[in-house]
Design a protein that fits this description.
By secondary structure, the chain is an all-alpha fold. The protein contains 11 helices and 2 strands; from the N terminus they run H-H-H-H-H-H-H-E-E-H-H-H-H. It has one domain.
Length: about 300
């Protein structure tokens, strides 16, 4: 019974934060300015740091290092999500005043989805030891694909779920004050707005990205509580980070290489788990250094015009 209380307390804490976010601080639709976004990034990072300090204090050094490492992995892998956010906002021409609402519900759905995936992953690991090798091989494949595939223009309108919705229910072109659905006056049928189609795209792509990030963090720890909490804090800060960096994402062109390096590292760590255990502190140092090097290289070595991410 004692083991369930941290889950309950953490869930209540997150629900309260989300309620305050949408119901108090962002009750009115508005464009999120960089200064406001930077403030919220600082708040979410500070909350993660305070929680991490609590993990160190109550659960010990090893668990604390696991949370720190998992949090850094999730933050780094979430960069791909931000690129997709920009693409979706542009493709559906989402007005800036509705982007906060869209990402709020997108991230809320991502939390529920990842909670389910983490539960499934924990069950698989507890019952099938070989799943570590499958996860490790998949991460190596993902890293290889990330650095070898040429950039392709992803059209959110070609998303299979979006196409299915467009075929089976009416879709309007207006945003109707940021509503996801409206009732058409002509026939009384419910119609989807572009905001709902954009939400579908964001949820679908997060599911795809979760297939990388969830196995990656299980390479750090098999404790579902550490996996879930580090995921949650990284995702909650992702929305504010998007508003802060959305206009500068193209400058971080070496982050893809850094992400691939991290995926390779954790993939190899999973594959060699039964042969050699990599100390958690070493993992943390490697991931932090990789993140710092890829960001620094991106800023110091600007990409030449006409050069793709894969060629940078």
């Amino acid at each position: 019974m004692d083991e369930i209380w941290p889950w309950i307390a953490f869930t209540v804490f997150i629900v309260v934060l989300l309620a305050l976010d949408l119901g108090v601080f962002n009750r009115r639709a508005h464009e999120v300015r960089p200064k406001e976004a930077a403030t919220w990034v600082a708040i979410w990072v500070s909350l993660a740091a305070v929680f991490n300090a609590g993990v160190y204090h109550f659960l010990g050094m090893e668990k604390g290092l696991q949370f720190t490492t998992g949090y850094l992995i999730e933050e780094m892998l979430s960069v791909d999500n931000m690129f997709v956010f920009v693409l979706v906002m542009t493709a559906f021409r989402v007005p800036k005043i509705y982007q906060h609402k869209l990402l709020f519900y997108g991230i809320l759905g991502a939390l529920l989805m990842r909670g389910s995936l983490i539960a499934a992953g924990a069950w698989l690991i507890a019952n099938f030891h070989w799943i570590f090798y499958a996860f490790g091989a998949f991460l190596l494949f993902t890293a290889f694909r990330m650095v070898t595939d040429k950039d392709s223009e992803l059209d959110p309108h070609n998303n299979p779920i979006v196409k299915y919705i467009s075929r089976h229910m009416p879709v309007v072109s207006e945003f109707h004050d940021g509503k996801f659905f409206i009732k058409r006056e002509s026939d009384g049928r419910r119609a989807a707005t572009p905001l709902f189609l954009a939400l579908v795209c964001i949820e679908f792509t997060d599911l795809v990205f979760a297939m990388d990030s969830i196995p990656a963090i299980f390479a750090v720890t098999e404790d579902p509580f550490i996996v879930f909490t580090s995921n949650v804090f990284a995702i909650l800060g992702l929305r504010s980070l998007y508003f802060l960096l959305s206009h500068a994402l193209d400058k971080f062109h070496y982050l893809k290489h850094g992400i691939a390096a991290v995926l390779t590292f954790v993939g190899l760590k999973m594959l060699t788990k039964d042969v050699a255990e990599v100390p958690m502190l070493w993992s943390l140092v490697f991931i932090a250094c990789t993140m710092a090097i890829s960001i620094t290289a991106s800023l110091l070595l600007p990409r030449k015009k006409g050069t793709s991410d894969k060629e940078a």
